[in-house]
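Good morning,

Both structures are done.
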Amino acid sequence: MEKGTYILVLSGPDSNYWDQPHFESVLLENYSNTMQLLSVSDNNNESFVADPSFPTPSKNMPHTVLDILENLSILNQGGREVSMMKCTLGCGERYKDIYRPLFRSEFRDMGNINLKSEIPSEYYQDSPISNTTEYCNYIRQLEIILDELHEIFKIVEPHKSNLKTYGNRIRNVIILACTEVDALLKTILKGNNVKSEGNNYCMVDYLKLKEPMCLDCYTISFRYIKDIGEWSPFKKWYSNSPEWYQSYNKVKHDRFKNIEKATLANAINAIMAFAIVLAARYGYRNDIWTEKIGKLLQVKKEPVWNIRDFYIPPIENQSLSYIPFTEFYPRKRIKQ
């Protein structure tokens, strides 16, 4: 077996709870042919850790990786099948500033799931925000831009028939939102030591984040405004910049010539892009998002992750370590 971290998977008949297909709560850390049984737990509701002391090895439980391979019959009872799934990252390993759901022991309680497929998003749990000051700053800026958009909605009815409406106040919203998108994507690239292709970071560089962050898999809508539909600003992002971003550059550099590009649709796309990049960096299952943004915006679709790509909490007293996403991407991404 390769050195790495593994999830013990049990599948088989569903005559009773224990026989239902599920991901066992332990992880197998395979180093130097030894094994630790790790239970992912919530430590005082503050940080999630993998506890290497659970469960205590006994005569009925293999102590090494070779043991478990040779003694799968211990776990293979009642027609169950036992296998081990290798995780993409090890305990405590992360992509810098890139979201993944957190592996947790409760997955053993899911039952009757497709073990070769993805985990449904309703089971996702996000890692705690490490820098709440920085995060709150971004959230406040998103609030400010949303407030400005709602002021425009007092004059221009938020309806599909008005999406081509344009003007200078709408232009200001586009510039504010796109500036934040630029800043966020640039920070993530720098944090992962990805240098720009030219003198300055631009959409050619930002495109490198589309796959690892799955930006095109997010769809967001306004929670209480139904007449303008759902928005996926990164959906048609291939080689060129998305249309709303191209419009941003045009109205930024020549307001008089390109004012007709400052449309309500481009403003909404820019704002939703800002919200999506935030969610794809930090997640959105936290009290700050729920209280400030969740009352206005609703995440309708998001990436569906394979459990092997989940973040595994660090072992207690272990520091987080960051792995460049460039070691794993580009690669074939999970389909929605």
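Second structure follows.
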Amino acid sequence: MSDIYQKIATSPVGKRLLTGLGLPTPTILERQRKASADFVSGRVLLGAAPGAALLDDILHSMAKAPDAWLCCQAHASTAAMITQTVAARDLRLTAVNTGPADSTLFKALVFDATGIQNTTDLKELHRFFSPVARKTTRSGRILVLGRPACECDNVSRAAAMRALEGFTRSLAKETGKKGTTVQLLYVSHTATADQLESPLRFCLSPRSAYISAQVMTVGAGIGDLPALDWHQPLADTTALVTGAAQGIGAAIATIMARDGARVLCLDRPQAAKQLEALAQTLGGIAVTADITAADAPSIICDALEKAHGSLDAVIHNAGITRDRTLAKMSGDWWNQVIDVNLSSAERMDAVLLERQLLKRNGRIVCVSSMSGIAGNFGQTNYATSKAGVIGYVQAMAPALKEKGITINAVAPGFIETKMTAAMPLVPRALGRRMNSLCQGGLPEDVAETIGFFASPASTGLTGNLVRVCGQSLLGA
């Protein structure tokens, strides 16, 4: 549904009026429009704490962004270290003056915080970011990289690494009005440059337009890391998307097909006509089944085996709502929501794994919700099911590691769908503004995140939860 307020706010007259009234003026976000687009284009300012360990790994990926100009602060204490690392990779580097009088803007700010050894060293964050925090372009990107606290060898360093979360979440709230997003990657000592590349590309690209203040952990690779065409990251893969007939599910199927995947589109029999049309458009296959039926996993696996033999990714997107306060909710409504949103995914994965239809280096991605994090009035059943999805992902991650399979979750916030379009005017308007980007997200924002987790290159990511909510002010 069209956001009339945003259209007014981004017009020259409307922007002046709303700014004068102290009202938010949400930026029109830059989103990925084609798979072949470079992941970052423009000036990228690099910074690092003394002794940082990931510069070479970062530049391993930046070398593949032909339209990016790497910059470093001429006055930074680590400028020499950055210059040497850049020179070793034969990349172009521009020294810039980031003083108050300088008008240079940056598409991305990237800071390697792994050199921070104790809480006193947190001053390096201020040293790098204070002069440039306002110098990102519209829809800019800010990325901080640190080490997981559990890998730190002393209490002070562990506290400093955990402090990065408060820093990035606060900075995201300061920069969100420009459409600029901030992410934090905790990179394990066991992760390689190749395993860092997928999350680094995602965080710096338009694919992460509606994701901000998120924390991901990159670990040692699970499964093989294949050679990849980044313009078609899902080429030669097969993916199953549940609840694919419309809304977010249709967007997931579309984005995955755009990125090269063969898609099996699954939905209930009542949506067969819509499902067939989508599958035909995408060159995929439509499968209808009631996922709550006892024989549904076997029916779905039989169709999969007949069509493709095996599967590279399964996306558990199917979900329903049956909203009512708990005191007025029937047992049937409670059971329906839990079964569709949570239990059916468990049953389907069990059969897929038992029949060995999900390949090694396979991907499972589950769709949770902000309701599962913050709760919601009249949605005890829905919030319970979506919180259960998060618990399922976290519990399954270690068990699937031995099979070379990753599992992650996304939690959408206010996304512009038919469901939110049917909301009353005032709750809908508030839902759009109650995040740092001051607008609702699009189904494609959820789909881009799922495509990222489903990529064969995302082998270092498992057990993660990413909120696709523009940094919602609820449940942060």
